[in-house]
Amino acid sequence: MTALPRPVQEEGDGDEQQNGRRPFGAVLITVPDGLGSGLPASSSDGIAAALLDHAGAAGSDDDALMEAEDERPRPLGESFSLWRATVAVFALAALAVAGYVCLYSGGSGGTGATWRLLEALEEEGEGRGGRRSFLLPLHPKPRRGGGDGRDGAAKNLTAASPPTGNVFPTGLYYTTVSIGNPPRDYFLDVDTGSDLTWVQCDTPCRSCAKGAHPAYRPAQSNIVLASDPLCDRVQRNPNECNYDINYADRSSSMGAYVRDNMQLTSEDSERDNIDIVFGCGYDQRGILLDTLENTDGILGLGSRAISLPTQLASRGIISNVFGHCMTTDSSGGGYLFLGDDYIPRWGMTWVPVLNGPADNIRRSQLQHVNHGDQQLNVQGKLTQVIFDSGSTYTYFPHEAYTNLVAALKSASPRFVQDDSDNTLPFCMKVDFSVRSVDDLQHFFKPLSLQFEKRFFFSRTFNIRPEDYLTISDKGNVCLRVFDGTAIGYDSVIIIGDAFLRGKLIAYDNDEDQIGWIDSDCTDPSKQSRIPFFLRRVFRNQLV
C-alpha cells in the first residue's frame, strides 16, 4: 500500500493560498505485496519522478527560509559553542605565557624584563641630573622647668611689632651639622619660619650665650663680600655683607655672611662637603640668649635664596623640597630631610602655599577651625596658616582663641580655671590626679584645621588634645595655644612644633605646597618611585 501526498494545487488555490504555506517535502513509502513483487515499474517510476520534482521545488524554498533564520540574532546561550570556549582558553594561556616571559626571561639572576624596566625608570628618576637627598637627626631639647621649656618666652609675649620674614627662632628640637675644615659639630634649632642659617661667632663676639660648643671662628677668606649675589641688602662696607634679623619674640641676631664647608649625610650614609653661605652671629639679644644655652644657632629653612634648601636646590644638588618628622613622644626625636626622596608617594595631603610678597612666609589658606564639631572662627572668614617648627606653641586669632578657651571651660565641671598658675596664659585646676596628657583625651576633643576641598575630598589637619594641652609643675592642665594679637597676628594661625608631632611634614618649594601624613617618625626610609602595589606583586613573583 502506498501513501501518496495530496496533489499540489496551483498557486493561489485552496488552503495554500489562504495560509501562504507549502509542504517542505514528500515521503514515498513502498510496501511489497505478498508475492514479493513491487508495483508496476511504469506506475512506480512516474510517481517517484513527480515526488522528486516536488521535493526539489520545496527544498529551494526551505533553504531560503533557513538563511533568513540564520540572519536573526540569537540568544547568548545559543551563540556560545565549544569551539569558542576553546579559543578563549588558548588566548588566556597565551597571555599568561607572555607575562611569564616578561617577568622571568632575558636577564641575569632570574630578573625579568618588566622588572628591569621598572627599576631602570626608578633609577632614572633618582638620578634627576645628580640630585640627591640628605638626612639629619632631630633631638629634643632638655626640659627647663614647668610646661615644656618655653615658659620664659611665654611670659614675655606681650605687645610686639609684626615680624618681617622671621617668626620664632627656637623650638623644642635641634639638629647637628658639621661646619668648617676640619669639620666641627654645632647644634642648630630647626626653624621653618626663617631663612638665614647662622651660628654664634667669635670675631670677637659682642653678645653671645655660652652655647653647646665653642663659637665658630671664620678665616678672612670666609667673609662674603657685599657684591655677592646672596647679599641682598645695601651694605656700607663693600668688604663684607652684614645682616640683622629680628624675630617675633623681639629677640635678634646681628652678624656677617660667611662661606664655608657644611658636611651633610646623604641617603647612602656618605658625607658630602658643600660650600654654604650662612651667618656669623656676633651679637644676639633677647630670649635667644636663654635658648642658646643648649644650642649654637639657627638652621633657617625658609624659601628665600639664602635659606639652606634653596641654596642646595639652586646648584642642582637637591630638589627644592625638605621636611621633618617628629615622634609623638615628647622625649623622642625624629629626623629632618633635604630633598624629596623621603616623601611618601601615596597618601600625602597637600595644600597650596601663598608666599606673602612682604614677609616671604609660607602661608596656606584655611576655611574652618573646629574644636570637635564646634567652629571657632567666623563663618565665611578665611584665615591663613603658617607651619613654624621654630615655635613651640600655636597662635590663634583673637576670636578663635577666646572661643577655644570657652569650649575648654565648658568641657567638664571637673576643670576650673586657675589664674594663680602663670605657666601659660590659660591653665585649669583638676579635681583628680593627672599623670600625663594622655589622661585628658577622654575629656577634650581634637582641633581640626579644615582647608578647601580638592575634587570633593576634604583636607584636614588634626591636632590631638595630648598635643595642644600640657601639664604644669602644679599639676594643672594648661593650653598651649596663645592669642595671636599679642604678637601682631590677628588673622593668622601659627602652628608650632609641638603640634606637628606624629606627622611627616613636607615643604615643596618647587610646587608651592605643604603636605603631611601621619607617621611614627621612627624609621626614615627612601621612598620608591614604583607604585607599592606593583612593586609588591613583582617582588613576590620573583622571590
UniProtKB/TrEMBL annotation:
SUPFAM superfamilies: Acid proteases (SSF50630)
Region named Disordered: 1-25, 129-161
GO molecular function per UniProt: aspartic-type endopeptidase activity
Coiled-coil region: none
Peptidase A1 domain: residues covered: 173-517
GO BP term, example: proteolysis
Keywords on record: Aspartyl protease, Hydrolase, Protease
Domain of life the protein comes from: Eukaryota
Presence of the UniProt keyword Hydrolase in the record: yes
Active site: residue positions: 191, 388
Keyword Protease attributed: yes
Protein family according to the UniProt entry: Belongs to the peptidase A1 family.
Protein name in UniProt: Peptidase A1 domain-containing protein
